[in-house]
Amino acid sequence: MKKKHSPEQIVKKLQEADGLRASGMTVPDACRQLEISVATYHQWRKKYRGMDVGQARKLKELERENQRLKEMVAEMALDNRILKMAAEGNF
To answer: Is-contact 30 23, C-beta < 8 A?
Structure first.
């Protein structure tokens, strides 16, 4: 079953995992206790390493904004292409 975690939850779980690892627990054991896979742990760690909750939230907001802007550019490029075709009489 796939769960969606918020950036806040991810950062908190990574902090918990770091605490467990500092106490001598292995990565697989810490992941099992936190109910995440080892691959997920490493992906999260790669993306969110050293962030606090506010920074992780801001990263997600910026990713959503970036996606929205990419969609706008794609729509504008399509509109521009249609207008060029219409101006050339190929419509």
So the answer is: no
Length of the chain: 91
* Integer Cα distance of 40 and 44 in angstroms: 6
* pLDDT number for residue 72: 98
Distance CA 83, CA 75 (A): 12
Which residues 6+ apart lie within 8 Å of 56 measured at CB?
Answer: 7, 8, 10, 11, 48
Flag whether pLDDT at 21 surpasses 70: yes
CA atoms within 13 A on the CB side of 12: 7
Full-model pTM: 0.64
Domain residue limits, the chain: 7-64
